[in-house]
Amino acid sequence: MTREYQQIDEGLIKELRKISGEKAVIYEDKEQLSAYAKDEAGGEYYAHMPDAVVKPASAEEILSIVKLANKYGIPITPRGAGSGLSGAAVPIYGGIVLSLERMNNIIEIDKTNMVAVVEPGVVTNDLCKRVAEEGLYYAGYPMSVETSFIGGNVATNAGGSKVIKYGNTGHHVLGIETVLGYGDIVEFGGKRRKDSSGYNFINIMVGSEGTLGIFTKIYLNLIPLPGKTVDLLIPFRSLDEAIANVAITIKESSVLPTAVEFIDKISVELGSRYNNTTLPYQEEATAYLIVQFEGRTKKELEEIYEKAGKVSLENGAIDVFIADNRTFSEKIWRIRRNWLEGLKAFDPYVPTGDVVVPTAKIPDIMEFIQKTSKKYSVTIPVAGHAADGNLHPAPMKPQKMPPKEWMKVSEEILKEIALAAARLGGAVSGEHGIGFIKKGLLPVTKKKEFELMKIIKEDFDPNYIMNPGKLF
């Protein structure tokens, strides 16, 4: 549900500038405003200009802005780094984009309690580096570690390559301070790791995509730095063999992998060209797995990867390559990490889907993706976090199809794949979130949950000013 929203005028701009300062408010400057009109989902096709951008520096400033927005009926779109892939940061009703880029302080690294306290605008990689200096590790980062903000990760419950061992972002959130939509600062949780006192509001806020409130402080769990790592690059002649090998590798290796990533042939070909490199058996292999293990000693690692390599060779692998040095490891991960950028270098109109299924259902969803590719006569590269069933299909535009027509066709392709994932016991998003691109699928696949979500939304944000048009 959305409401009738009011227009921003000079009077409101003056009040916003009183709150956050002259330089922290952008108004009537189309060039600057346009930078906040989109995220990584569809670029210009899904862009919508905000009426104003405000860059607060404190929770108190955010609270004052939210109260003003409630008073005047102005929509607010919270924004992190803009690296999202579901349109959650696109201000589709205009109004205020509330950018959290100035709230980028690592408030505290509490080594005793092993907790990091951060503002939402901290770049994920900056936190990882900072805690590593203290011999600690933040394990909740996604693939976009070098660009994404912690606040955005929490807002979408972002995942990544290491979910199989460490869990997605939500597993690492101990507490959240937030300005709720009705205009109050509330803190849920904190540095404690247990709390059986009533409802778990942290879990409600994680993944809420800015529709309930704006995070102002986040408490994150830290662990000791893991030991040494080793990466295995495993090519397969058939996609089915690669996918079938995921569960076998996890089960038979006796040690839970840190990551098991999947990437198909077309993705490797384009990624290799984009990154000016090659992988072994590119002509012969149809799919690759990248498997990472951690171990305390070199000897322990050797035992782990020798067993995992033997299992893979017994189950269809062409070969097993051990990346036990930084150079080879980076060569492997660069192609996977830059997967979407590599595709966009050859097709700027390529969208990326995000579906999750139970691990045992990966062959079924891959079969559906292949059938959908033939149905629409399009190429659909796929990569993903195979160990947790999270795959990213990315249909590529046929050369002769006009971009506007392609936008509709690609939306239909990704919709069909997402609904198929839900039918297989999965969900229409595993880590990117719903935003507005998938909001039509939520009431279809989660009917009763969706009704409960609306009740929470109306209690936390009765005037529907928080990120309207997203999820609902």
SSE topology sketch:
Elements (H helix, E strand, L loop, with lengths): L9 H11 L4 E3 L2 H5 L17 E3 L4 H14 L3 E4 L16 E4 L6 E5 L4 E4 L5 H9 L3 E2 L12 H7 L6 H4 L6 E8 L3 E6 L11 H5 L7 E9 L1 E2 L3 E9 L2 H14 L6 E6 H11 L11 E9 L2 H17 L6 E3 L2 H12 L1 H6 L10 E2 L5 H15 L5 E4 L4 E4 L9 H21 L18 H4 L1 H14 L12
Parallel strand pairs: 2-4, 3-4
Antiparallel strand pairs: 1-2, 5-6, 6-10, 7-11, 8-9, 8-10, 12-14, 12-15, 13-14, 13-17, 16-18, 17-18
Task: Report a brief summary of the structure.
This protein is α+β, with helices and mostly antiparallel strands and 472 residues long. Helix content is 36%, strand content 18%. Among the domains are: 119 residues, Uridine Diphospho-n-acetylenolpyruvylglucosamine Reductase, domain 3; 115 residues, Alpha-Beta Plaits; 92 residues, Alpha-Beta Plaits, CATH 3.30.70.2740.
